[in-house]
Amino acid sequence: MLTQDALQAWYGSHQADLDWLDKPSRHQFRWRLPNDRWATANRQFSSPKALQKELKKQGPRDVYVGTSAWLTPVDLPKRSDTDAPHPVLIDHMVVFDIDFTPFSYRRLEQARKASHRLLIWLEDNEDLMLRSISYSGGKGFHLVFTDNDRTLFSIPNPKEREEAVRAARQTLLQRVLDQGFPVDTTVTADTRRIIRLPGSLHGTTGWVCTRITREQLATPLKSWVKTIEKHPLAKPLRYWPYGPSDVLRWFAPKGTKRGTPANVKANHQTAPLTVLQCSTQVVGTKGRSALMAWIPQRWKDGHVEAVAQRVEELGWGPVHQFEHLGQTLLIAPRAIPKEQLTKELASMGWPSLSSELKQMGHVWLDIHPLLDDEEAGGHPLTHKGVWHKAGPGGKTTPYSATHLELIQRLGVEIDVGEHEVAGRREPALRVVTKT
Question: What is the architecture of the domain spanning 4-227?
Answer without folding.
Answer: Alpha-Beta Complex (3.90)
